[in-house]
Amino acid sequence: MTIDHLAKDFAQMLLTGNSVEAAEKYWADDIVRIEPARYPSGQTRRITGFAAAHAKLLEWIETSDAAELAIDGPFVTGNVFALFLDMEITAAETGKREPFSEIAVFTVRDEKIVEERYFYA
């Protein structure tokens, strides 16, 4: 499978609400997820390994409702692809709905995503 095919299939799975299935199909066992610093210490949130990343994904799904998802991309270069994601997120705890945008960059090795790096404010 080419990275183009993987990237397009992964993006389509996200777009149709199948993010758990996309993760199970394409994440490597040793995947690393990196999110922007959100803590006063300025530390970047880094999650390593399929089980920890999967738990984080399930937690996000439980605490947030994403609607009106739009994806630009994938933009592929070498063994990396990027997606620009725009959505409306409703926080389960507060019920507050807000627009949310992020850039997600994925590194692929042996037809599996080995790193996801997210950029958002």
CATH class group: Alpha Beta
Tally of structural domains: 1
Helix content: 25-40%
Strand order of the largest sheet: 2-1-6-5-4-3
Quickly count the helices: 3
Order of helices and strands: HHEEHEEEE
- Return residue spans where pLDDT drops below 50 for at least 5 consecutive residues: none
- Largest β sheet strand count, sense and barrel closure: 6 strands, mixed
Strand-pairing-aware structural class: alpha+beta
In whole angstroms, the N-to-C terminal distance is 34 Å
Broad shape: globular
For this structure, the CATH topology is: Nuclear Transport Factor 2, Chain: A
Under the CATH scheme, which architecture would be assigned? Answer: Roll
Mean pLDDT: 91
Q: Percent of residues in beta strands? A: over 45%
Radius of gyration: 14 Å
- Please count the beta strands (DSSP E, at least 2 residues each): 6
Explain what you see.
The chain is α+β, with helices and mostly antiparallel strands. The chain has one domain (3-119): Nuclear Transport Factor 2, Chain: A, CATH 3.10.450. 29% of the residues lie in helices and 50% in strands. It is built from three helices and six strands. It has helices at 3-15, 19-26, 50-63; strands at 27-35, 45-48, 64-77, 80-91, 97-109, 112-119. Helix 1 packs antiparallel against helix 2 (19-26).
